[in-house]
Amino acid sequence: MKEGVTKAAAEIKLTGGLETSAVRHSDHGPGSYFACLRQRGPSAGGRTAYSVFFDDDSYKGIQSSVISDACEAEPWVPFN
Known about the structure:
This protein is mainly beta. The protein has one helix at 2-11; strands at 18-20, 24-25, 33-39, 50-55, 58-64, 77-79. The longest helix is centred in the N-terminal third of the chain and has 10 residues, at 2-11. The chain starts with a helix and ends with a strand.
């Protein structure tokens, strides 16, 4: 998963510190599972959340998160 998140962040040109959520099952998008991703910073409300999709450990794509992903309600952890 780490490689996929790194690839996704580069694809949308996020730089600096990143935060992710836990991996969850998806019933939409290009993969069976997804994790939320955003750039780390002082203003949580101003940071766009993205959904990073996977099938097993294979990265399948990234898109802006949608309401049904509930990314903003998830606990965020630093991505290392």
